Amino acid sequence: MSDLESWILHGEEMRRPLIFHPELKKSSKLIIVGGGLSGLCCAYRVAKKRPDLEIIIHEKTKNVGGVISTWKSDGWVCDLAVNAARPHPAFWRLVDDLDLQSVFKTSNPVAKSRWILIDGKRHRLSWRTLFKLGPVRLYNSIKKSRTGGLAVSELIPNKQVADAMCLGIVNDTSENVDADFLFPSMTRFGSNPPLKRSKLKKLIHGTYPIFTPKRGTISSIENGMQTLVDKLASDISTLPNVSIVQGEATSPEIVAKLYDVPQSSVIWAAPSSIISEQYTSLSIFAIGFKNEQVDGVELGYGTLIPNPEMPISGILHESDVHDSSRAPSGHRLFRLMVPHWRWDGENESVRRCAESLLSSNPVLFEKIGERKIPRYLPGHLQKMTQLNPECTYVGWCYSGVSVTHVVDQAERISELF
Ligand SMILES: Cc1cc2nc3c(=O)[nH]c(=O)nc-3n(C[C@H](O)[C@H](O)[C@H](O)COP(=O)(O)OP(=O)(O)OC[C@H]3O[C@@H](n4cnc5c(N)ncnc54)[C@H](O)[C@@H]3O)c2cc1C
């Protein structure tokens, strides 16, 4: 495939390192450790391309899907991890290949606004916000960030805005987050596209199946992301060359021995000690109201809250954003993200904070789960490029945090075969 074709298929993902073993394509049997979205996508893509290849997904838990699951109760529907995808053709291709076109919809165009809460006041967040920080300061810090390995706090010259963005994406504060990892196009990490970015964007736009997403939109799946994972698992179960085995792998070496393959035939789609194996934790709450109780809350995507004195770091307007229903008729659903280092562990303090920001007496208030998020310390992506790996590594721990990265990465891995 030519460089240009690859950029049209994968876009800015081409900046991110693909951590693969050069002998991977010689495998006659493939072991994929981890059955999260990443492991499942790799199995699905490679199995379809190479029906002659035996593929085993070695997953430590009873269920596949990893961090993705959707909580449902009496008409309320709320995702615990990712709830929607930003525009990227690889995600559209996956939805198309899984025949989920009819349940895949773009977000509500009137619920685009994002806010940031600073000193008790909500400010609308956009690219203009960054310019308001001072275009010269911003320009200088972007330029400096191109040396690589800096923290987001050094890229975005306003601590509250930088923290809010990092908390919203990786549940961490900006001095602890690698700028290259979160914003590789801004820091110009990796290689540059072989033609002007505006021309490339146009070419990429022409490749979307199903529908071409509009700028600033996200897209989601009816009944939550669990629908995607369930369909992926169900399609995989019909592929004769793929099987799922339950078990915890302790290292690529041991799992390779277990299945009598070289380590180069292992795709590790789970956390590993090649990264720092540090995590932050957060709890996720669902809170619901009758429409009239939250008349004063503008329709939107959500609010980021950098203030560490508040237990809630983000409020997502779940029922405003998605095309499919997330709340019983006449109600609105919000999802609350609660980092553990900011919280005393009492549900009541989350409730008090949410009531002060939204409205009192919710008809629903429930903690729906907890999740751990890998830490991406400054220099993370540079470290990934310098690996000389004993096997192939995929998934959100390594070169990209979002589902679009994970899904696109699986396509790039399948192209190696
Ligand atoms: C709260 C939250 C919000 C998010 N929001 C968004 C969002 O808005 N947009 C977006 O694009 N993305 C979002 N994400 C990220 C997205 O969910 C991830 O990118 C994606 O689901 C990661 O999939 P994965 O397969 O790489 O990892 P995981 O889902 O972590 O899967 C890893 C799998 O490996 C298994 N495993 C682990 N260790 C072993 C072992 N030793 N042996 C065998 N199996 C093992 C685990 O059980 C698991 O099934 C969010 C994530 C969270 C937690």
List its traits.
16 helices; 7-stranded mixed sheet; globular; Polyamine Oxidase, Chain A, domain 2; alpha/beta; 5-stranded parallel sheet; binds flavin-adenine dinucleotide; 417 residues; Rossmann fold
How would you describe what is shown here?
The model has no long low-confidence stretch (mean pLDDT 95). The chain has helices at residues 3-10, 37-49, 89-97, 127-132, 135-145, 152-155, 159-170, 179-182, 184-187, 197-205, 226-237, 252-258, 318-321, 347-357, 380-385, 403-415, and strands at 29-33, 54-59, 70-73, 76-79, 104-106, 114-118, 121-124, 219-221, 242-246, 266-268, 279-290, 302-304, 314-316, 331-339, 364-374, 392-393. The chain starts with a helix and ends with a helix. Helix 2 runs parallel beside helix 16 and helix 3 (89-97) packs across helix 16 (403-415). It is built from 16 helices and 16 strands. The longest helix has 13 residues, at 37-49. With 417 residues, it is an alpha/beta fold. Helix content is 32%, strand content 20%. It has 2 domains: 3-68 and 82-104 and 204-276 and 379-415, Rossmann fold (3-Layer(aba) Sandwich), CATH 3.40.50; 109-113 and 277-374, Polyamine Oxidase, Chain A, domain 2. Strand 3 (70-73) and strand 4 form a beta hairpin. The chain has a 7-stranded mixed β-sheet with strand order 7-6-12-13-14-11-15. Flavin-adenine dinucleotide binds at residues 33-39, 58-61, 66-68, 81-83, 248-249, 269-271, 371, 373, 395-396, 401-404, 406.
